[in-house]
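Follow-up to my post from last week.
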Amino acid sequence: MLDSIWLVIALPVAGVLLNGLLGRHLGRAFVSVVGVGVVGAAFALGAWAMTDLAALPEAQRTFTLPLWDWITVGNLQVPLTLRADALSLWMVLVVSGVGFLIHLYSVGYMQHEDARMFARFFAYLNLFVASMLLLVLADNYLLLYVGWELVGACSYLLIGFWFHKRDEAQAPVTLMDGTQVTLPPNLNPADSGKKAFIVNRIGDFGFALGVFLIWSTFGTLNFDAVFAAAPQAPATVLSAITLLLFMGAVGKSAQLPLAVWLPDAMAGPTPVSALIHAATMVTAGVYMVARSHVLYELAPGSALVVALVGGVTALYAAAIALVQVDLKRILAYSTISQLGYMFVAVGVGAYAAGLFHLTTHAFFKALLFLAAGSVMHALHDVIDIRRMGGLWRKMPLTGLTFLVGALALAGFPLTSGFFSKDEILLKAFQFSPGLWVLGLATALLTAFYTFRALFVAFAGQPRDWPLYEKAHESPGIMTLPLVVLAMAALLGGLLGLPAVLGVPNWTADWLAPVFDTHGLEAKHGVSAATEWLLLGVSAAVALAGIALAYWFYVSRVDIPARLAVALRPAFVFLANKCYLDDLYDAVLVRSGRQLAQLLAQGLDKAAIDGIIDGTARLLARGGAWLTQFEDGHIPHYALGMFVGALLLVVYLVVR
Amino acid sequence: MSQPLGFPLLSVLIFLPALWAVGVALLPRERHDLIRAVALLGTLAVFGLSLWLWFAFRPEVPGFQFAEQTPWVAGLGISYHVGVDGISLPLVVLTTLLTLLAVLSSWKAIQEEVKTYMVLMLLLETGMLGVFLALDLFLFYVFWESSLIPMALVIGRWGGERRIYAAIKFLLFTLAGSVLMLVAAIVLYLWGGNTSDLPQLLHTLPGRLPFALQAWLFIAFALAFAVKVPLFPLHTWLPAAHVEAPTAGSVILAGVLLKMGAYGYLRFCIPLFPDVLPYAVPWLSILALIGILYGALVALAQEDIKSLVAYSSVAHMGFIILGIFALNPPAMAGAVLQMVNHGLSTGGLFLLVGVLYERLHTRQMRDFGGLWARVPIFGSFFILTALSSAGLPGTNGFVGEFTILLGTFQVNTTYAALATFGIVLAAWYLLTAVRRTLFGPLALTDGRLSDMNAREVVVMLPIVLLFFLIGLFPNLFFERINPAVEALTSPAVVSVTYGEVE
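User reply:
Got it. Predicted complex:
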């Protein structure tokens, strides 16, 4: 099967062509079968390839498949080569597996679209899957970059899918003292997509320079060749390469300071938020750092930057999530925060832990988004949790699966999120207790905001009765993926149980040949007692966060209201997303546009073109002035000739 | 390698359009559809011939192929000398394709004096093909000038409101440049031992020209080409010409005429004056960089979508000039490919703007908005073309930009970084154009707006297919471009300019 690994990309591409060109004539059923089927087939082929790879001895588990010579110019040679190893096939399964479930769900979710839009949606979604699979199967940095840009373009198209919609105002929050806090409006889909693309391009500016630097340093872009030559490269160059590449990751994975695009990306259809903006695309940055681990190990300064950016972003986004009222945006900030955890992991060298959390997060965050989508489906796109309440009774399956997702996100003991987050916290603790504290504080906030959303939306009494009355459980094609993902979110922890339990950690073992971390683990090992203690602290923090949320939003709902008054400045600050959007808008966007206006009107039109047109007019006037000497009087011409000749003679003599 | 087909393919290619123009001129004036059909047939035949040339061309053979040389002004040592290499070949095919599409796109847009229009388009094609295939300085000059007049007439007769102003501006700018070129050509002719034959000059000149003279000649040529490209600050004729020109005029102008400037640098400035390059490269590179960033920002400020595309040309041509003067194979081959890419992407954008203008009679983006819901086929083509122009991987634009930037990075990281920032700005102005045209609530109040018809789809289809063909299999082009570029970037030239580059 490994020889045919190109099929996992080709199949979704075939889906794109079929649904994109003909889909609107072929009917929904056909579009659905093709759109969902190709991703399912890609998953099956990926799983088959994985068993083939597993059958090989560990040292030989890297399979490369050259397809064709893509770019050959001078000494630049970039072949189009795919690489199937433990890491890339792992990602293939995550992407196509979660992707398959989300495609299935979309058949129900997008049912209200007309035939053209329905087909277009699946064409885009398939294109995304193909691009993402290319990204993870790439064998060199340029091909990785190709996939990287393509998933960005798909993200752009899908965020702006409902391109006709306008900004949506959010109702202000009325505090207990009667004052109101206005909330920023939700940006319209078209501008959100554009914003996502441009912010990503800023990150990719760094990524591209990183790729150029890799080539000028190593003369190749091939992963293995670069990694083999890396130890001989100067440390400063490696630092520069890794930081530039990380700049791309900061954009793609929405970390500080480029995190601003992801919350607005929620303007896209919810399956898109689940697939692209939670489970897969945004994790590409984590994958890229893990893939380049050889370089980051040789540039510890850069690795530290990765971990710190991740840690700070995790806390920042969790704090903002505390006060959001838009269910999808709570989840979006949560995604930014959880991606921060993953960067902490790969920054401190715990690549397997990072990948493990990437995987469990794909399960439970896709689940949470799809459940949120199920709520939106029931409430006619209402997403403000202040208009929900008591939904548990109307949509029990959605409520139950949301609960499972929430438990996993909060790190409730024995769920998948508990084990994967704990693995990261353990590695962070080994690296530096400060980083561990940062991660633990984030974990507390995470448990709190997750259950705040859960309690407000699903528990208690309905706040908007007419809306509540209309609510209904979603059809089976939407709830089935919810149930499957809920199982994965609940049991996914089995893939990476902590070492202290004395059982094998399948994730770490499977990925060990790629990361070659057998030796490293032992070096920083902590005692079993410490590990148990850390596990206990993690569990306690998760339970404390959940309990606090219960106390605040179920038993004593007056407390958060009072707190908002008491801590008004902090509340306003967080409600306005730390004013980061406003800052960029003022400093970059508006001044950029002003500069553009100034150049266009002042310099281009007035100065440059003005001088040129002015010169032309002057010449024309000069010509008109000269014509007065052509008056037809021969003596005047003779005089002119005489003067001219005289001047010529004078010139020749004086010279 | 001369005339392997047994007949002078290049001469037929160059003069068939002019001959066809004579035929068209003989048709009855009022038979518009007949005139259009005959003209289309002619451009189709020329395109077919150029495809034949493409496949008959042998990538592995160095130097000029299909060369023809016969004395022209025998007493003065001026000959009719034409030939094709890997640099001119892609541009020849680009020219014939875009002329074909331009004629097809004019079907409805041009309703007055159709005959004169088609005759001019065919004459223009002869001029452009001659420019890319001439191997004699004076022959080149004659073709250069002869491509100028039909275009100026097309703008001046079939253009918009300020067409006369735009046509005269276009004419004067280019003439001012080409006068300098003519003087320089005469000087070269005299110093080269009374020959204007390019291969011969390349053989005899090295070591003969004093440095100061080389510098002056370089400046004269470079100015003529800079106007054509156009390089900042000689670009202001371009938006004027584009905005006023009819759609087909804009397509040819952006698609082919601008390339004549870049081609001139490759064909004359670099090989003829290698000693000047170390001094000239920083100037030209910096002007190219200004073009990239300045063109992008000014594009962002435009309200008229045609004007936006025109300024985007300034930015894109900046990439091409930057790539040429990086003087290494990846950047220079990338620049040649990017000439084709820009012809396709920007030509495509102008065609699409024309589609809108024919229906709505406005080019102001404030009058658009939400059009994708009404004209989905148009919308899909527009987004694809904009993304190709923004250098999306998988399409042609990416390969060109990437190779140019990577090559530039080898010689100057600052230039490369600034130019790379240009692609951020490119995304900004292109997506702004898409946003304001296709997205948002529908702005139209008038109910009538039809989607692209079959003819318009047929015009765009080859362009879009080429986006992907070049994006996925760029080596189809590179294998032809590379040998010619490697000759130009021989170590002798480069080491003088940049020192030893690994």
